[in-house]
Design brief:
5 helices; ten-stranded mixed sheet; 259 residues; Alpha-Beta Plaits; alpha+beta
Length: 259
């Protein structure tokens, strides 16, 4: 049978999602935990491969098993075999042709910036940090140029392997909560480093180093070298993945990762 699961993880101590030899990855830890419950080797497919240091509160995976367990047994069994920085929220049987990546219709990310003079301590690696005074009105004005279906070549990593750079950016909103600035991003899909590159451009504009119209210039250039620095992975969370209702995947609200 094919099962799907929703999980969260603190990416601080991982070299990203995807399995690699001789380094710690989320995929490796999850596969080892599921294998222990399934009594046989299991490979998992994810909705999105997060980079080193990137976190998730709503990652979705699917995997195939030959043994029958109740949903609660899968949930409790997997979690009992996972390290403290990974946890599964939900497990359920899905259709045999369900695919965590290819069936996804939308993805939500949340980028959290601590905007103050002093670096974070207990939130180190959980938030990004910018000591410059960021103006969220300028950042939101810049964001308005980026929403819609565009060629996001200027916002993709040089090593990005996506066949097409065209994505539909459905929502890009910048808000403030005291010393914290939140960038909420929603799209049909993302390119490699796309969210971090969007955040980098918005932070540069928020600091007054560029005008809001620069965001549009970067977009139309279709050239990564025109996009400035890539924002750090600290503070980036995959918060939700959307699927058609027929998939039977529970729809988690893209809640704040910190509170």
């Amino acid at each position: 049978m094919r099962l799907a699961a929703i999980l969260e993880y603190d990416g601080s101590a991982f070299c990203g999602w995807q399995y690699q030899e001789h380094v710690r990855t989320v995929q490796d830890e999850v596969e080892k935990a599921i294998t222990s419950v399934a009594n046989g080797p299991v490979r998992v497919i994810t909705a999105g491969r997060t980079d080193t240091g990137v976190h998730a509160t709503g990652q979705v995976i699917h995997f195939d098993v030959d043994v029958s367990r109740t949903n609660n047994s899968w949930l409790r069994g997997i979690n009992s075999n996972l390290p403290d920085d990974v946890a599964v929220h939900w497990v359920n049987q899905v259709a045999e042709d369900f695919h965590a990546r290819f069936d996804a219709t939308g993805r939500h990310y949340h980028y959290v910036i601590l905007n103050r003079r002093v670096r974070p301590t207990f939130l180190a690696k959980k938030v990004s940090w910018d000591y410059r005074d960021l103006d969220i009105k300028r950042m939101q004005a810049a964001a308005s140029y980026l929403v819609g279906e565009h060629d996001f070549s200027s916002f993709r990593a040089v090593a990005c392997q996506a066949k097409s750079p065209v994505r539909e950016l459905r929502h890009l909103k910048v808000t403030a909560r005291g010393d914290y600035i939140d960038i909420h991003v929603y799209a049909n899909a993302f390119l490699h480093h796309m969210v971090r590159n969007l955040a980098g451009v918005l932070m540069t504009i928020g600091a007054g180093e560029r005008e809001p119209e620069w965001a549009e210039s970067v977009l139309v250039a279709r050239d990564r070298t025109q996009g400035g620095l890539t924002a750090p992975p600290d503070g980036l969370y995959l918060t939700a993945v959307e699927y058609p209702k027929s998939s039977a995947i529970v729809q988690l609200s893209p809640a704040s990762p910190l509170w």
